[in-house]
Amino acid sequence: MNSKEQFLYKRKQDKNSDFVMWMAFPGIYSFSMSSLGYLWMFKTIDELEGVNIERICSDTEKTQFNIKDVKLFGFSFSFDLDFLTIFSMLEKYNIPLKSKDRSSQPLIFAGGPVVSANPEPYKEFFDFFIIGDGEEVNLTAVEICRQNSDRETALKLLSEVEGIYVPVYHQKRVKKLTKRLTECIYTPIISEDAFFKNTFILEMSRGCANRCGFCLASYLNLPLRCIPYDELLKTIDLGLAYTDKIALLGAQISAHPHFHDVCKYIYDKIKSGQNIEMSVSSLRVDAITSDVVKTLAAAGQKNSTLAIEAGSERLRKVINKNLTEEQIFNAVKIARDNGLKGLKFYGMIGLPTETEEDLQSIIELGKKVKKENKGFDISFGFSSFVPKANTPFQWCGRENTKSLEEKANYLKKELHKIGISSNVSSIKWDYWQAVLSRGDESLNDFVLEAYRQGGKLGAFKSAAKKLNINTDYFALKNYPFEKSLPWDFIEIKPGKECLIKENKRLVTNNYS
Fold this sequence. Notes:
This protein has helices at residues 29-32, 36-46, 82-92, 113-117, 137-147, 151-159, 216-220, 229-240, 259-271, 290-298, 313-318, 325-337, 356-372, 401-417, 427-437, 444-452, 457-466, 471-475, 496-508; strands at 5-7, 20-25, 52-57, 70-76, 107-111, 128-130, 164-165, 174-175, 189-191, 199-203, 205-206, 225-226, 245-249, 277-280, 303-309, 342-349, 377-384, 421-424, 490-491. It is globular. The chain starts with a strand and ends with a helix. The protein is built from 19 helices and 19 strands. By secondary structure, the protein is α/β, with parallel strands linked by helices. β5, α4 and β6 form a beta-alpha-beta unit. The chain folds into 3 domains: 5-175, Rossmann fold; 198-301, 2-Layer Sandwich (Transcription Regulator spoIIAA); 307-512, Transcription Regulator spoIIAA.
């Protein structure tokens, strides 16, 4: 696709096959080149003998293969609003959006966290979905499609594969796939045009054992799995043979039993004269140690992000983020004393049971941290709570938009007074994310209408009005535990009963 790309694996040239597949990323090329999951899926399929695969992005102008030759068209679906770009990409190649209107066109499928958690708002647009970890089942799906040119036959066979959901077959249960991690997933193609220029990203761990009540990344990827240490070192050395920029990825990388050893391995290389720039996705407050921070500082990282989620210990307990104020202050001190220039605290507003006192606690925390760390850059970033399917907080509605916007403005104003910059995600867009996250099949025409009307905020509002859909029901309403949920057919451990228990333990027990 691009002459500036370096492939870290040996590509099979001149495949003796007429089976053509497109792997699509619903965003621009530079973003696709920093998407580890997307690139790894491409690599594993590219290594198949009988498949010609091409990467397609929203800004792709010229394609190697003609759409009429494409038999299979896959999409990475990582964010709720990706459907807008997916629809525009399908229309760009004159493919009808609804699967019932397609006959000679390629089979269209999607995988990724959004559709693994709840595919129902999009079920009429895709022929099938990959639910969960797709590394192995993707290859099975491609093989079935390659061997069966008849759509109906292929879809029937796909519906019998564990981890694949085929809406036209209304499977009663679909099991979410969880892969044992034995090999390290890494950036297989390095590009200077990537968003993270010439950066080699490697996955240290998948999942998170902390289980914050709102967190889809944690619950969708349970249990926490770590890449073997020797495998990590081998992969780091592979990356460093091509570039001096590496990034360690994982929702809870500091929980890796050899995280400190990995940091030492990289630190020793830097101290022996090797030029390495290293970054990490984010750090847990209780995992910040001097050796980790020294490595980050030596590798050129000036700032880091700490997810504290809430300002008060009470509210942190509600969400299962058991951090004390003392731990937070200690983390800041270690970061400052060992070479970092600043920290960004990440928090959330509108969490279940949040009170005025909880909000005030954020400001008090900011004041104290600022006072004790003069000259150290402190900033805050906030989003608003979005209930996510298959988490303990999936039954909790969010606060109304007006109330959340008032909270956001109050926080920004009060933090600004004490010299702390802050930014808040769009409360209005977070509302529509919540609608989509807890949506059911009745939203298929709604998402289509929102797209047809231009996909801006007003389009969502007017689509709901036109189709008479009460979107507040999906976004704001507290659901009873006995309610049957649109995504109940997806079998994800630890299961609904455990999620109910966890919701009661966190929300009820910590309310007072």
